[in-house]
Each structure stands twice: as C-alpha cells, then as structure tokens.
C-alpha cells in the first residue's frame, strides 16, 4: 500500500512509520519544510496548502499532526495553537483529498477521548455525546473539519486516542523518570479514570482502521478496561519496584499547570466498543502489560 502521513515526527507518527516500513509499505510524509526526497511532500496547514502530488496513488491518509497538549502552559496564545494546529490542518487535508481527481479512499484522522469531557464513573463509548471544556470543544471542531472528505465519499475515521503508554515520549514518557526516581504518585484524589493504550496497540489499531472497511466515524483507541489514576499509579510502582507515596494535590497542580490542570484532574472512562466489535485484539489489554511493553 501507499500511505500518506502527517505528524510523522511525533511519537505516534514515528512509531507508525517504523511499523509500515517494516512491512514494506510505501510512505509519503507531509512536511512543512522543503521536501528532501521522493518520500516527502510539502504542506502548510496554516495556509491551507497541501501538495496534491503527495496524494497521487495513495491508498490511505493518516493525519496525526497537532501541537502537544501538555507541552506548554495554557496561555490564550497556546490554546489557539492547540486548536488551530488540529482544525486548520484537518481542514486542509480533507479539502485536498476531496479535490483530488483520484482521492485516497480512506482518511484516518487523529482525535482524542477528551471529546467526552469529564465522565466521572460513567462508562462511555463512541455513541456518547461530546462533553464540556476546552479539549472537548477542540475535539468537536477537529472532527468536524474533516467534513469535506466525508462529503466526497471518502471513508473517514476519527481515532479518539487515550493516554499512550510509552517511554519514548508523550505524557507517559515524562512520568517514567519520576516513578523510577521514587517520586511518582497520584494526581489530585486519583479517582479520575485514565483510558490508557500501549504504543504497540495504538499503532496496531490505526493500521486496523485502515484495513477495516466497516470502520468510519469515531473509534475509541483505549484498552478495554480504563483504570483510575490511583490504580495506574499503584501499577507503575509495582512494575518499577518503587514507592508511590507522593501525591500532587489539586492546588499544586493548578499552580504549576494553570488551566491545563483541570483536564489532568478529570478523566474519561472510555471503552473501545467499535474497535472490539470489528475484531481487533489487544496485545496489552492490562496496565501492567502495557507498562512492561513500554520498558522493553
């Protein structure tokens, strides 16, 4: 297959590139700089530009580009960056695909379980409505921006990803050093649910969506049984053989993280109904399995 990809320099993008190349697939990486070879094509999400030649002959497009949610304090400017990097980029890709004379038949577009807002103890799957809050509103706009592709008859799936368990980057990548040093602990009261997924299963799920014609619309990418932050903290301690006595109280999180702390202190008890119904099998369904896989 020939697959076009945005966000190839991020945690998920790099892992997906490795996986696809290992199986002999032909890749086109969309980049913001001048392309350095035949395997790259230029795009400028802010200007809405996508080189149409990069889509020629492609069987699928995987769109993962977006500014890191936890990379900076949430100033008004950075919140705009989070929103624009997702909404403008998705709109540019969707319009380019819709306008192409022979468009790729599949668009797998990144999204997040933050779509559901704070669900408390309530289990939610893809049939649940959008929640409240900044990240939920971003996810709603993010998914809506793919409308041109859907209206052009392109199968479009929104991969609502949970917290990816990886030592290579992302939120979990920043937690591992703290837990190894014996400084890990629950956040707030620890009752918020964390819908986790191993990096291996995340990449396998993205590829499963590409290969499964019945999957379109929202698809939750999270392990079958989400756990609370307290349970995840205990599992990290067991696997790493470190104490987890430290706790970060909510006021301290608000002081350090600002508005972003409100999203750290809430959670989503999101389950992958559509993924399981389509026949996907998790390699690491449990949290300790996912943590051990990240370490190896």
Quick one: overall form? Answer: globular
Average residue pLDDT: 93
Q: Helix amount, in percent?
A: 25-40%
Number of helical elements: 11
Spans where pLDDT lies below 50 across 5 or more residues: none
Question: What's the β-strand tally?
Answer: 16
Whole-number tally of structural domains: 1
Radius of gyration: 19 Å
Largest sheet: 8 strands, mixed
Kindly provide the name of the CATH class: Alpha Beta
Named CATH topology: Rossmann fold
- Taken as a percent bin, the fraction of beta residues is 15-25%
CATH homologous superfamily grouping? NAD(P)-binding Rossmann-like Domain
Q: From the coordinates shown, what is the CATH architecture?
A: 3-Layer(aba) Sandwich
Structural class call reads: alpha/beta
H/E element order: EHEEEEHEEHHEEHEEEHEEHEHHEHH
